[in-house]
Amino acid sequence: MARAARAVAVAAPSAPGPVLLQDLLGYNLRRAQVALSRDFQRSVGEGKIRPVIFSILVLAEATPGVAQVDLARQLGLDKASVVALIDRLEAAGLLERRRSTLDRRRQGLFLTTGGADLLQGLKQEVAQHERRFRERFSAAEAAQLITLLQRLYDQG
Question: Considering the entire predicted model, what is its pTM?
Answer without folding.
Answer: 0.81
